[in-house]
Hints:
By secondary structure, the chain is α+β, with helices and mostly antiparallel strands. The protein has a domain at 352-399. The protein has helices spanning 2-11, 41-45, 49-63, 87-94, 102-116, 185-188, 190-208, 225-234, 262-265, 267-281, 302-328, 332-337, 345-348, 352-364, 370-376, 400-407; strands at 23-24, 67-72, 80-82, 118-125, 131-137, 142-146, 152-158, 161-166, 170-174, 215-218, 254-257, 338-342. The protein has a four-stranded antiparallel sheet, with no helix packed on it. Strand 7 and strand 8 (161-166) form a beta hairpin. The longest helix is centred in the last third of the chain and has 27 residues, at 302-328.
Amino acid sequence: xxxxxxxxxxxxxxxxxxxxxxxxxxxxxxxxxxxxxxxxxxxxxxxxxxxxxxxxxxxxxxxxxxxxxxxxxxxxxxxxxxxxxxxxxxxxxxxxxxxxxxxxxxxxxxxxxxxxxxxxxxxxxxxxxxxxxxxxxxxxxxxxxxxxxxxxxxxxxxxxxxxxxxxxxxxxxxxxxxxxxxxxxxxxxxxxxxxxxxxxxxxxxxxxxxxxxxxxxxxxxxxxxxxxxxxxxxxxxxxxxxxxxxxxxxxxxxxxxxxxxxxxxxxxxxxxxxxxxxxxxxxxxxxxxxxxxxxxxxxxxxxxxxxxxxxxxxxxxxxxxxxxxxxxxxxxxxxxxxxxxxxxxxxxxxxxxxxxxxxxxxxxxxxxxxxxxxxxxxxxxxxxxxxxxxxxxxxxxxxxxxxxxxxx
Length: 408
């Protein structure tokens, strides 16, 4: 049956999220290893606390990072400076559109990217072709089609209408996939989400019954059907949650509760495993979503956790995001003049003692001026602190030769 189903999908043009084809693109898996679990969608998945925590961790951390636009200088050293006051700075750093703050915009984009593998925004350009506004689009409402000439069109369904955009009108941040559409993580992790929801629903059902177990009601005579139904109704409180404090059994009747099933016994372990399993789908340590029962190979200290989180998850995501902005938002002329980068100082900042130690070494070895370090610490600039210094009495680099001669 599965082979016939796959053949039909190929016949009608669906080769999955990694296959290349003309026409409509698909981000869901081509083959489902277990197709019994219901598709709960984004709304259902986010009702699982582990999914919510993983999405919140990644979206909030990325959305809270400042996005800087740098202007390339004309010197040969590859220096750059903040491009404050430029339209591109206003768009990416201050206000992507008239409605959303930068954090609101990036939270929504990251939410779609993490769960559907694709984030979209409609681009509004001025007469010079430069983007002046970005309006986020729901990934569930966007359909991508590859035309015979290999160009792409984006179809956006909204309130019963369909708007069609070409590639220049859409910012598309895609996850891994076939190069046209990203793979939908939520579709690939459907089984894991289904197990977590089933365990969650089973727990809710147990507590709804006040944690009472099913049982056998024993009577030493044969009953008619109506008598059995009457007993079920009268003594239902023995197995279901209600406010009955005392139930009286008559005529030698006896109630024997059944022992807990293996599924009930392992329910807690199943729910704990679901946290670890879902964290794995998002590429993070379960410790970062409050799984206190687990340790991590990244290290036990908070600094090791942050470093591992940055290296193995945030940095790859941010690299792809920066490249998508550079490729699809900036014009060719803007790419010659500007670069776009997220500042990771807020995440990588350690304790005050660590920052002072790192800053002291950078200043003493001529890697950073004192005013540059003060700027990172949100301290005001001071006069005479713009020169690079070295350990020899913190003298300016230009004076090192003279200082050495004087000391000699």
